[in-house]
Amino acid sequence: MKRNDWIIILIIAVAAGCVYLFTRLSSQTAESEVMQANIYFDGDLYESVFLDDTQDIVIDTEYGHNVVRVENGMVVMSEADCPDGLCLQSGGIDSVYQNIVCLPNKVHVEIIGGEEEAQVDVISQ
Amino acid sequence: MSSPNNGKPQFSKVKKMIFMAMLLAMALVLGYMERFIPVPFAFPGVKLGLANIITLMALYIFGFWDTMVLVWMRVVMNAVFVGSMMSLWYSLAGGLLSLLVMALAIKLLSRIISTVGISILGAIAHNIGQLSVVAVITGSVRVAISYFPVLAVSAVVTGILIGVTVTLLKSHLAPIYKRFGQELN
After folding, report:
1. In this complex, which of B43, B117, B152 lies closest to A5 when CB atoms are compared?
2. Which of A89, B77, B82, B185 has its CA 20 to 30 A from that of A114?
């Protein structure tokens, strides 16, 4: 390895660090009492639920079957018939801007702070 | 012996076809086998990318256009055998962007960075290509970007592994080429 290889690694590490800090900070500033889980299918809002409710949301589309479970302020993908099952492995999410993506079924879940719901919808459309 | 040399080894048409078919078979098998190698942590999109060994090696042996054919065939056949329609799109975006970046890096930067550096650039380009597809499918750039930090770190690690492997492979192949009076640059 040459010295310039290390410079490339350094640049990538700094970029990754910056992106990480940025997402962390924007998550903290958006933190609020009321949080919602927005469930999207193919980029469009499918359903929106409050995190303090306990319920299972079933998403049956032509791409597949997913079940999102909301329980104790935590959101998990509890069932999915996608071939890779990566969304099942990604665990639970409980803070603003965290997300679970099920790419094969075109489903994703993102947590947002209650009051800026309108703004988020404009961005994601 | 038709196309201009560019310092790449020359093959007869049949030899080249057989060689490329073998590389394609190896790339497909490596891409399939790597899912049986346990990775310390499961994260969407994190994988070893062993097929990139073949892509990078083919770039050194054949150059950009033939490797482009190889990448297309690998991605399409991989989707037919084990993947899905969706995996075709993100493999294609990742594979082609990675190929483009590595080819440019070999052309422009090979004096100042080593094969390991080129491999790291290819790995990060692969992840950026895949994340753009994630951004398109989810319709949210923020979701795609939230995956970048972990994928970038994994790209550096796997890029180094693949880069070292290709460096060793090249040093073993070079004497064989030399025996046939050819140069592997």
Report:
1. B117
2. A89
